[in-house]
Design goal:
heterodimer, A: 279 residues, mainly alpha, 11 helices, B: 293 residues, 2 domains
């Protein structure tokens, strides 16, 4: 307290303003998360997870299954592409080559495109041009483009953090470039790549605008790759818009928020544990 | 060369080709996105008359003949973005200064993950929170029906906080300690050294965070659509308690049932949005380069 009194008035005001800034920020977090979770928990009942969605019982189960399908398919497409291109950029490409520059520029561009533009593109390209309509395929391809930059960036960072002595050791023992990458560098970089993949899962689960025009927003489980469905976020959006089932809307918001926050926390926990290991 | 080493060499070569093809995926994706959006959006804009499309104040897809003017939506996007900056930037920059220069270590290890959590909340959850909390709050305390430019601005201001805090904090931390120490040695207080010397030195990084925040706000769809009221009417700044429609909301509301010319007009709306966001992102990377140089 003495320290505060000794400050000049201007300094004191600035000091208090920085505190105010962080207090407002933390209050926003506590208020949003607290409100959604506390209001949602009482409505989370077993019927919310019933197999079938009906007008009386707005089960989120089909949406949950749809979410898992979209996440799975999207990762199958985006993880190999993202990891391979990061390997090329870090382990093979010459620094500053023209190709690398273009790849970086386009990756940054992808990262900056708003999700509604992805939705629009997915709708006119996968849905209309390729004729896939509203389907798992359209949805998964669209979201896989969305998460590609994220996976590329996190993989690149974790490849770069593998010490060069690992590579030199491997080359010194006579291994080729491919063997060095596959057997030495990739295993060492796996936790970092995993953290990025999990973050990408969180991004897909939280996505709405790109989903409703590609996967669609029909409350049922997709039967095949070209069938429509919905994800948890799309389900949330529909419930909020219709406004006829406030209880289910509260509960779904809480479930969605908890799932996404857990996924993100898991990702940063893995990322943190790597930096600790490396000292 | 033996047969075995030749086979190994082949495998090396095949792997390299595979990696190069994968690296091209981002280029192909951006190419496809540009080609399909522009190919379908630009001719439609041309037919409607680019000037008429951009400056028309009537959006009447059901009229005969229909009218497609997106000025109300361009202005709507500008309003909510400006509002978000008004709310989010001062709070965000002060919070970033706190994180970089004022925060005691034990609090920092709690706050850092908390800010990351804030960044992870899905926009549809923000939108839902806005619908059930902010809209009634604004209706009761400020008037109007609550679905307004003002409400959307507050919500977007909340949503861009983590972007502004994280990037500004990194920019402030990147300033060499000698600069701060020099100011202290000349007798400046901690606050004075931070706000008069370190923060100005981190100017381009802080600006970059604001620009990225603007990009987020312009492109945000679900949350805005759920609280902004969405009337496609040209509003004046003093009507901030009335509803307005943004470019993003225009697409998300009508794309589901639009056909023919109407759909083309929505794709053209997307093109305008895309161009806006690309300009903003280009500004961001220019500032980012300036910072690292």
């Amino acid at each position: 307290m003495d320290k505060l009194k000794r400050k000049k008035p201007v300094d004191l005001i600035l000091f208090l303003l920085t505190w105010l800034g962080i207090i407002i920020t933390v209050s926003v977090l506590i208020f949003v998360v607290g409100y959604v979770v506390i209001n949602g928990l009482p409505f989370i009942r077993p019927s919310l997870f019933a197999r079938e969605f009906t007008t009386e019982n707005q089960s989120l189960f089909p949406a949950l299954v749809g979410t898992l399908m979209i996440v799975g398919l999207s990762l199958i497409l985006a993880v190999p592409l993202g990891v391979f291109s990061a390997i090329y950029l870090v382990e093979y490409a010459k620094r500053g080559s023209r190709f690398v520059k273009i790849v970086r520029l386009t990756t940054e561009t992808l990262a900056g495109i708003p999700s509604i533009v992805y939705g629009l593109f997915g709708f006119i390209f996968f849905g209309v041009f390729l004729g896939w309509g509203l389907s798992l395929m359209s949805g998964a391809f669209t979201t896989s483009i969305m998460i590609l930059p994220l996976i590329m960036r996190t993989t690149e960072e974790s490849l770069k953090s593998v010490p060069d002595t690992y590579r030199e050791g491997s080359f010194g023992l006579g291994a080729g470039r491919l063997r060095t990458v596959a057997r030495i560098v990739l295993p060492a970089a796996t936790p970092g790549i995993l953290a990025g993949v999990i973050l990408a899962i969180g991004r897909i689960v939280g996505e709405t605008a790109a989903i409703i025009f590609t996967l669609g927003n029909v409350a049922r489980m997709p039967n095949n790759l070209f069938d429509t469905g919905r994800t948890l976020s799309a389900h949330m959006y529909a419930l909020a818009n219709e406004g006829t089932h406030p209880g289910e809307a509260h509960a779904t918001a809480a479930v969605l928020l908890i799932v996404v926050l857990l996924i993100n926390a898991l990702s940063s926990w893995i990322a943190r544990s790597i930096t600790k290991d490396r000292g | 060369m033996g047969k075995r080493s030749l086979r190994l060499l082949n495998r090396e070569y095949a792997a390299k080709i595979l990696f190069i093809i994968s690296a091209s995926a981002a280029i192909i994706a951006v190419g496809l996105i540009c080609v399909f959006l522009f190919l379908q959006g630009l001719p439609a804009m041309w037919d409607m008359g680019i000037i008429r499309f951009l400056t028309g104040t009537d959006w009447r897809p059901t009229w005969d003949p229909p009218r497609f003017g997106i000025l109300p939506m361009i202005v709507g996007s500008l309003y909510v973005t400006a509002g978000a900056i008004l709310f989010g930037v001062p709070i965000g920059i002060f919070a970033a200064v706190f994180m970089a220069k004022f925060c005691p270590r034990p609090i920092y290890v709690i706050l850092k993950p908390a800010i990351n959590l804030l960044a992870g909340i899905p926009s549809v959850v923000y939108g839902y929170f806005g619908m059930v909390v902010l809209v009634p709050f604004v209706r009761e305390n400020f008037g109007g029906n609550g679905n307004s430019i003002f409400t959307a601005s507050i919500l977007l201001g909340m949503m861009i906080l983590p972007t502004i805090i994280t990037i500004s904090e990194n920019a402030i931390r990147a300033i060499p300690p000698e600069i701060y120490e020099g100011a202290i040695a000349l007798g400046a207080s901690h606050e004075r050294a931070t706000f008069k010397v370190v923060l100005p030195a981190a100017k381009s990084g802080v600006m970059a965070s604001v620009i990225l925040g603007i990009g987020r706000a312009v492109g945000e769809t679900m949350a805005v659509r759920m609280v902004a009221g969405n009337q496609a009417i040209l509003r004046m700044p003093h009507e901030f308690l009335s509803g307005a429609r943004t470019l993003t909301a225009n697409v998300v509301i009508e794309l589901g049932y639009a056909y023919g010319e109407h759909r083309a007009a929505l794709i053209a709306t997307g093109v305008v949005l895309f161009v806006f966001v690309m300009i903003i992102n280009a500004l961001f990377s220019i500032l980012k380069k300036k910072e690292s140089a």
